[in-house]
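Field reference: "sequence" (input) and "structure" (output). Example, Glycosyltransferase:
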Amino acid sequence: MTPKFVSIIIPTYKDWARLSLCLHSLANQTYDDDFFEIIVVNNYTADRVPENYFIPKNCKIVVEAQPGSYVARNAGIKLSKGEIIGFTDSDCIPDEDWISNAVAAFEEENTYARIAGKIRLYYKSDRLTNAELYETVYAFNQDIYVEQDGTGVTANMFTFRYVFNEVGMFREDLLSGGDYEWAVRARNANHKIQYSDKVIVSHPARHHLAELVKKAKRVGGGQANFSKVTGGFFQSAVKFLYDLRPPIKSIPLILSKGKQMHVAQKLLVFYIRYYLSVVTAREKFMVSLGKTARRD
């Protein structure tokens, strides 16, 4: 039987060094490279491909001028040829069996139309920073996303082309949360998702608190555009005050995923969670009042 053709879409934004690691990994996949293509979408027109840059033979790099990773992903989808479409990010390093295991998972469980794969964190050293401690609990819990929401993030996701044909492309007005919004549409259209701990990419844990704050602001802007509040300032203010409540519901997750942490570390992680939730809420409130959402 002829293998299914797979298209891998990777948006990138001023990240050639980490993308190089990703492309080297994709060049060493166990899946026959005659049956998959790599489409890198450069989302910053002024940032050209470096000289002597490694580009696999089945890879092409295209440019998308309109800002936004979901715009870039849509551009890649439109150029792609695969029956199966896989997504990862420029800072991810896929395992060598990443594509093979995804295709096998679809063949073994043919009632599923989407896969959310495992995202394995790696760290700069064995001595974790406060930000990295936080990441061990909260970063990329794909198994939880699948179980609770029927969603998954595009750092490690596979689906069939027909799902995009049926539910549409990613929303291009979103700078964050577009993968969640699309996954909800796919879920509501009864395109089932499975979690696979064999479909693995590695992702660097955020090392500094400033990186977490930047992401929290980006998420807040995405949430504001994802679900616009009607009723003007008053309704936005009420929603803002509601979003300031302490994240009590996250305590079981800290206890379950932070079993190796001592009490002080668990309290620290909870504090960071609360602090970041306030940052997100504030950014969401400000964007709802007209501020431009962040993309970086």
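The beta strands are 6-12, 36-42, 59-63, 84-88, 93-94, 114-122, 156-160, 193-204.
The first strand starts at residue 6 and ends at 12.
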